[in-house]
Amino acid sequence: MNDILSNIGKPLIVVTGIRRIGKTSVINVALNELGIPYVLIDCRSLRDNYGRSDLYRLISNALSSSLDKLIDILRRIRGGISIMGNAVEIRWRVGSRSTLLSYLIGLMREGL
């Protein structure tokens, strides 16, 4: 767990191991100890040759199920999000009727 906590802020943390030894539990404990908002996205439901829309739908569902956490995270965003060198600016309107999935699909169509 110390390895996870000391690497928070890095672009990617991979936790590996055989099935059913508690990898997800260790991640949850580490994230809860940090006390910062997070959304855990479980990619096991993706098929082997998934497409962008499958990934966007998975992310949208994970964020939608954690709406309170998402609102807290979005309030902290200043100017945009950068993931491994790719940046996206989000202008979020509270009360917007569009779903996050439709927003992400719109970004995909614009080539982002």
Describe the structure.
It contains five helices and two strands, in the order H-H-H-H-E-E-H. It is mainly alpha-helical. Strands 1-2 form a two-stranded antiparallel ribbon. Helix 3 packs antiparallel against helix 5. The chain is globular and about 40 Å long. The termini are far apart.
The level of helicity is 40-55%
> What's the β-strand tally?
2
Report the order of strands and helices.
HHHHEEH
Radius of gyration: 15 Å
Tell me the span between the first and last alpha carbons.
34 Å
Oligomer: single chain
Percentage of residues in strands? 5-15%
Which residue ranges are poorly predicted, with pLDDT under 50 across at least 5 consecutive positions?
Answer: none
**Helical segment count:** 5
For the report, how would you describe the main beta sheet?
Answer: 2 strands, antiparallel
The structure class reads mainly alpha
Shape descriptor reads globular
Helix-strand blueprint:
Layout: H1 2-6, H2 23-34, H3 52-65, H4 67-76, E1 81-83, E2 86-88, H5 100-109
Antiparallel strand pairs: 1-2
Which features characterize this protein?
112 residues; mainly alpha; globular
What's the gist of this structure?
Strands 1-2 form a two-stranded antiparallel sheet.
